[in-house]
Amino acid sequence: MRQVFQTLIILACVAATTPLAANPSVFPVEVGETIPVPRIAANIFLRAGDDPDSPVWSRIPRYRIALYAAPAVHQSVNLRVADTAARRDVDFSVAHDGERLYVVLSWHDDTHDTVNAYARFPDAAAVQYALGGGEGTSYMMGSADTPVNIWHWRAGRDSAENLAAGGFGSTTRLPLQDVTAGSAYDNTRQRWTVVFSRPLETTAEHHAKLDGPDPVMLALALWDGAGGERDGHKLTTPGWIRLALEQ
Predict the structure, then answer these.
(1) pLDDT mean values, one per 10 residues, the chain (247 residues)
(2) How do the residues of the chain divide into helix, strand and coil, expressed in percent and rounded to 5?
(3) Domain 2-245 -> CATH class
């Protein structure tokens, strides 16, 4: 596995010096594994940092991980969770350009749900980071002692919210909203692609530390609006993925 990741790093590093070419491979991963995060040349390939159609995303390693129904933590969620799909796969890529971290999510969705109204819910996605507690942090919204930072996107508004949580029901919008997002839905392939990004450097409270020597702990979540999924009714990675940023 280490040799595979070393090879992926080499392939990603040549992005700034070779012609653009699609990378058709998708590498399956599981929670607990370490993903190398390559550095890309933003001034060459990125037309816009959060552009889901940028050709650079086809050149960096792409991974696939399974998401499962989050454990019901409230009776109202328990009443709905039986309707949730047992599993949903999501493809993801992670890269940085020395200034920002980019997380790209792509997944199949039969319906393009963007409306938030009575009995209608938009599709959504989130990227979650452990703050300080590392692997000891609960991937289910953290706890009071080990909080988490969450980047949340919802279809219908091409932006992301920067949130923090310290347990169920404690999600809070942070004062500094420095997370951005761009999204696109491919009607032919019935796939969402969402690009999250944030500056690597920050001193703000409850913001994930992305530029340190320690691995970044990441978890993913998806909501299918057509399935009535919202709030705690969602699918998540059943644990953390480690990110190792190439310096």
Answers:
(1) 43 38 78 94 64 89 95 58 74 94 96 88 96 88 93 93 92 96 96 96 95 92 92 92 91
(2) 15, 35, 50
(3) mainly beta
